[in-house]
């Protein structure tokens, strides 16, 4: 399937924008906050939690960073007004990290001050040190409603996990193509790193968001949960909106907490191409799900 996934990714830029929007529709809440509110309400009604992401991390001015910050404050207002079971995920580059780390810190604090849990997303390896440093700085300053992300593909991640005792961590495989000297490139190595890191996080008393669509990893995580006798409120699974929906439904039916990543915003097209190009396996999931909608019962 990997060759087909890669072929799908190669032809994406040639597909008309309108067609991409149709293909991406199940995986993005929409272009407006109203769209996101409706999507999260639907997920909550199905017993699922959500984390809302405002698309637009590719910014080039402080004004754009401030605009994204204001958009997040509006999201927090919506969560409170609608009584949604949701939090937010932010990318530090969208808050101005590459322009001025101080600007990103101020914008992150403005969002975190509202009290709702804020997940600091992890981006490519050029931002890893700065992201972890800012997370630790604010956590040490008393911002207990912050969490961070670790990527199992990076060779450093198991050590990073051991240094995050007591933290709230989303653990994912990682979608960025990184140099072999700093990242695992082999499928089996990444799988093994994921499971080692998961164990290290739980050893350190962390609350973990097990973020994967990989059934093998989910099964192995469930075995660890049983062995450690963890209660449902002590962890959660996480998945992307619209991806592996049946698998997510199974997790909820089995009594697991499941949080869905809900992106929305005007930059839906850029997000769609980037997400699929960076992760060919997700492109394969999308293609199969799309065929399922077009040819039900195939």
Tell me what you see in this structure.
Helix content is 50%, strand content 14%. It has twelve helices and eight strands. It is globular, with a radius of gyration of 18 Å.
Q: What are the main properties of this structure?
A:
298 residues, 12 helices, alpha/beta, disordered C terminus
The helix/strand series, from N terminus to C terminus, equals HHHEHEHEHEHEHEHEHEHH
Helix/sheet category: alpha/beta
What sort of overall outline do the alpha carbons produce when their principal axes are compared? globular
Helicity range of the residues?
40-55%
Radius of gyration: 18 Å
Strand arrangement across the biggest beta sheet: 1-2-3-4-5-6-7-8
Q: How large is the count of helical segments?
A: 12
Distance between the termini: 17 Å
Walk me through the topology:
Elements lengths: L1 H10 L5 H8 L8 H13 L3 E6 L7 H21 L3 E5 L10 H12 L5 E3 L7 H13 L5 E6 L5 H6 L5 E5 L14 H17 L3 E5 L3 H14 L6 E6 L4 H9 L4 E7 L3 H11 L1 H15 L4
Parallel strand pairs: 1-2, 1-8, 2-3, 3-4, 4-5, 5-6, 6-7, 7-8
Helix pairs in contact: 1-12, 2-11, 4-5, 8-9, 11-12
Compact description:
By secondary structure, this protein is of the alpha/beta class.
């Amino acid at each position: 399937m990997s060759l087909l996934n890669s072929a799908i990714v190669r032809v994406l830029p040639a597909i008309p924008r309108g067609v991409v929007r149709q293909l991406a529709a199940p995986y993005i809440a929409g272009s407006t906050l109203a769209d996101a509110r409706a999507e999260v309400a639907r997920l909550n009604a199905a017993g699922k939690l959500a984390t809302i992401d405002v698309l637009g991390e590719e910014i080039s001015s402080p004004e754009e960073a401030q605009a994204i910050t204001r958009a997040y404050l509006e999201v927090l207002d919506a969560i409170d007004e609608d009584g949604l079971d949701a939090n937010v995920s932010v990318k530090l580059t969208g808050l101005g990290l590459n322009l001025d780390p101080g600007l990103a810190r101020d914008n992150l604090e403005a969002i975190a001050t509202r009290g709702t849990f804020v997940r600091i997303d992890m981006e490519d390896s050029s931002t890893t040190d700065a992201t972890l440093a800012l997370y630790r700085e604010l956590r040490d300053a008393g911002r207990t409603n912050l969490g961070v992300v670790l990527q199992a593909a990076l060779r450093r991640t198991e050590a990073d996990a051991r240094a995050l005792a007591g933290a709230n961590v989303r653990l994912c495989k990682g979608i960025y193509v990184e140099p072999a000297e700093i990242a695992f490139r082999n499928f089996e190595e990444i799988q093994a790193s994921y499971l080692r890191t998961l164990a290290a996080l739980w050893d350190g008393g962390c609350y973990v968001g097990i973020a994967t669509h990989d059934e093998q990893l989910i099964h192995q995580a469930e075995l660890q949960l049983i062995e450690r006798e963890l209660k449902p409120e002590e962890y959660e699974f996480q998945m992307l909106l619209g991806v592996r929906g049946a698998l997510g439904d199974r997790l909820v039916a089995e009594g697991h907490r499941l949080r869905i990543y809900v992106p929305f915003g005007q930059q839906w097209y850029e997000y769609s191409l980037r997400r699929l190009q960076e992760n060919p396996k997700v492109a394969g999931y999308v293609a199969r799900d799309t065929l399922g909608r077009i040819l039900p019962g195939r």
